[in-house]
Design brief:
By secondary structure, the chain is α+β, with helices and mostly antiparallel strands. The protein is built from six helices and nine strands. Strands 3, 4, 5, 6, 7, 8 and 9 form a seven-stranded antiparallel beta sheet that branches. A two-stranded antiparallel ribbon has the order 1-2. It binds 2-acetamido-2-deoxy-beta-D-glucopyranose (NAG). 2-acetamido-2-deoxy-beta-D-glucopyranose binds next to β3.
């Protein structure tokens, strides 16, 4: 009886191991001992761009999020100004280049510098900003164009065992927008009085640091949690050995 149950356990483990050995063909593994592991990881991620764009990595791996149309949760700021952003959608985040990458495979840490040549963000906004002499106020459509964004990405992960097989997971992902050229346009400020609207938008863009200081950390947080989600879905789809043969 003991022997039989051990036998069954082994069969189950083999079946599960077999089932999990289905790394999507789009994912290129990187040998752990490779002398240029970082280059391999850069190539592997960059070759995944179409899949990162659609969210479809393979028949058994469809991520909840795609970077062609990146949907972010609402943002509220209530500081020196009040700003509410809803229905936030980002475009162009699937078009990136990894300028530099460092990977420490032992404790699974990745640092990367990524470049995004051009992204657009659209949302609904409600703004109230008391500037003393007058109040900037309105609600409607906000468009943000972002050029040449340089982004620092820090990933810290770990390994865990599932059915006796080692897997990778990402514990924290943090992005930091180091530099970017941003231009905002708040449509319908001053209830659509066009000349006032245009003048106000100019003032806003000349004083962008105030808005950026409050809004960018929230955007970074939202995008970080998207990256955490996507990377964990991807890493759950294969074993440690499948991603990094060793
Ligand atoms: C990406 O996600 C958005 C929002 O969830 C969805 O509308 C879109 O169909 C998805 N796929 C692509 C390729 O954009």
């Amino acid at each position: 009886m003991k022997k039989l149950s051990l036998f069954l356990q082994i069969i189950v483990v083999i079946l599960i191991a077999k089932e999990s050995a289905t790394l999507a063909p789009s994912i290129k593994p990187c040998p752990l001992k490779s002398p240029n592991l970082a280059d391999c990881v850069i190539k592997s991620i960059e070759s995944l761009k179409p899949e990162i764009g659609t969210g479809i990595y393979g028949p058994n791996l469809v991520a909840d999020v795609n970077l062609t149309k990146l949907v972010l949760s609402d943002i509220y700021v209530d500081r020196s100004f009040k700003l509410k952003l809803t229905q936030i959608k980002g475009y162009g985040f699937n078009n990136f280049k990894i300028e530099k990458l460092r990977i420490n495979p032992e404790n699974f840490k990745i640092d990367a510098i990524m470049l995004f040549p051009h992204c657009d963000v659209y949302s609904k906004y409600a703004l109230g900003w008391n500037l003393g002499i007058f109040t900037l106020q309105g609600s409607g459509d906000l468009s943000v164009s972002i050029d040449n964004a340089k982004v620092l990405l820090k990933i810290v992960g770990s390994t865990y065992l599932k059915n006796g097989v080692e897997y990778l997971k990402v514990d924290t992902a943090q992005i930091n927008i180091k530099s970017a050229k941003m231009k905002l346009y708040f449509d319908n400020l001053f209830n659509g009085q066009k000349s006032l609207e245009q003048a106000a938008n100019e003032v806003i863009n000349q004083n962008l640091d105030i808005i950026k200081g409050e809004v960018v950390p929230l955007i970074e947080q939202r995008i970080s949690s998207v990256i955490l989600k996507i990377s964990n879905q991807v890493f759950a789809s294969g074993t440690h050995k499948e991603f990094f043969p060793h």
